[in-house]
Amino acid sequence: TTSFCLTLASEQEKAVTEKWIPELKKAVLNAQKCLDDCKRVRGL
């Protein structure tokens, strides 16, 4: 049924949001830090 599919979809979305967003944030922060380190090393 449609409502079952919608419920399933929203649960999946919630799981994706809870699991992936922190991972993505971490990855972005790591990339940012790496860039900063590279700039610092080049500046020496």
Count of individual helical segments? 1
Most strands sheet: none
| Unreliable sequence segments | none
> In percent terms, what proportion of residues is strand?
under 5%
Q: Helix and strand succession? A: H
Principal-axes geometry comes out as rod-shaped
Taking the alpha carbons of the first and last residues, their distance comes to 64 Å
Overall mean confidence score, pLDDT: 91
Radius of gyration: 19 Å
Tell me how many strands there are. 0
Helix content range of the residues, please? over 70%
How would you classify the helix and strand content by structural class? mainly alpha
How many separate structural domains? Answer: 1
GO cellular component, one term: spindle microtubule
Pfam families: HAUS5
Structural write-up:
With 44 residues, this protein is mainly alpha-helical. The chain has one domain. Helix content is 95%, strand content 0%. The longest helix is centred in the middle third of the chain and has 42 residues, at 2-43.
Features:
single chain; 44 residues; mainly alpha; 1 helix; 95% helix; AUG5_plant
List the helices and strands and how they pair.
Elements: H1 2-43
InterPro entries: AUG5_plant, HAUS5
Pfam families: HAUS5
GO cellular component, one term: spindle microtubule
Q: Concise description?
A:
With 44 residues, the protein is mainly alpha-helical. It has one helix at residues 2-43.
